């Protein structure tokens, strides 16, 4: 019997909230069942297993991030677009640490193809068009931006910048200035 009020969407959203509270690695169907005060078996009519739950949370996080990024990029170009895009990732990681981790969860090829991951890549490439990069340099730059954004955010969220001056925000601003300068002067082969 399906418990009234439990739907896959409600469970995934509750799983995403749980991820933000306790960490994405701690999210399981059992933990979610405890949250709803139901038996684990009652969730299996909505979710296959913990892997399915984590995949769905990852897809939700990618969609939320893509929607935020699209809103932030509207009407922007160049450094303004680069900064807005980078800040979306940083702000999302601060607001939703578990979901941010989920957005980097490995997906199988089918789930990845159906995810908002492609939108992220398209938006990154749209930003880079303002820097007049052609292939394969554009792909190199996409990878560079992803590495810098995710690396900085991961180090910052782990407390890596708390114990020294200057302030992390000042460093973030300088990193974005440096990325803009690098992209404008991208080395040509």
Automatic annotation (TrEMBL):
<feature type="DNA-binding region" description="H-T-H motif">
    <location>
        <begin position="28"/>
        <end position="47"/>
    </location>
</feature>
<keyword id="KW-0238">DNA-binding</keyword>
<dbReference type="InterPro" id="IPR036271">
    <property type="entry name" value="Tet_transcr_reg_TetR-rel_C_sf"/>
</dbReference>
<dbReference type="Pfam" id="PF13305">
    <property type="entry name" value="TetR_C_33"/>
</dbReference>
<dbReference type="InterPro" id="IPR001647">
    <property type="entry name" value="HTH_TetR"/>
</dbReference>
<keyword id="KW-0804">Transcription</keyword>
<protein>
    <submittedName>
        <fullName>TetR/AcrR family transcriptional regulator</fullName>
    </submittedName>
</protein>
<dbReference type="InterPro" id="IPR025996">
    <property type="entry name" value="MT1864/Rv1816-like_C"/>
</dbReference>
<feature type="domain" description="HTH tetR-type">
    <location>
        <begin position="5"/>
        <end position="65"/>
    </location>
</feature>
<keyword id="KW-0805">Transcription regulation</keyword>
<dbReference type="InterPro" id="IPR009057">
    <property type="entry name" value="Homeodomain-like_sf"/>
</dbReference>
<dbReference type="Pfam" id="PF00440">
    <property type="entry name" value="TetR_N"/>
</dbReference>
